[in-house]
Amino acid sequence: MPPPLSPAPPPSAQGSFGHALAGLLDVLLPADCAGCGSERTQLCPACRHVLATARPAPTPLPWAHAAAPYTGPVRQLLLAHKERGALRLAGPLGEALGRAVRSALGARAGAAPLLLVPMPSARSAVRARGHDPTLRLAGAAARSLRRAGLDVRAAPLLRHARPVVDQTGLNAAERRRNLHGALTVLPRARTGRAGLAGLAGRHPVLVDDLVTTGASLAEAARALADAGLPARAGATVAATVHPAH
Questions:
Q1: Which residue has the higher pLDDT, 82 or 245?
Q2: Beta strand spans in the chain (E)
């Protein structure tokens, strides 16, 4: 059993003008399905069914599970949520992430209170997008798991300790070198300040939208372990399917 989890920061309020405007436009303006392009619905019944019933995809890390392959409608839905501010997709994507959490934990899923720890987004990316998509998905997954009766919360514990280059086009070894030592646990999660009460004793589970080579999740697991907070598992909405699989 890991040592009790140090208190961590509550999920930050993601309010901003860009975030609020994106949400308002999402509700008021007609939108085509982000998965297949069907008219006047952001998530059509067919794509919702694909997301809800997708078979789990293999990942490069035995302790990390993905709810679906990163192909077809699932890929398009993740891109729409992350890059185009399709905020209403967080609910169904979060449900898929919650399934991956339960799959990764197996029989341990309800054995102890859980803390979903999202992979950190760069501040520049959050400003450009107007929201933090991974933190939003972690919150949606936690709500989905609570509806299923599990004791789950989500909170950011990690931050970037140094800049990294864009990982697009890098192979697995290059990604590992790029990310080595790039993440650290937030200082306030280590010191246990009074304002962070309520998260102690929860077992961390790393979550992200996508796993490609596993380098990001592995670096996050290292950072948590170095702080005495070993992750119980990792979970993502989707995984890039490599030819070997």
A1: 82
A2: 64-69, 114-118, 152-154, 158-160, 183-185, 203-211, 233-239
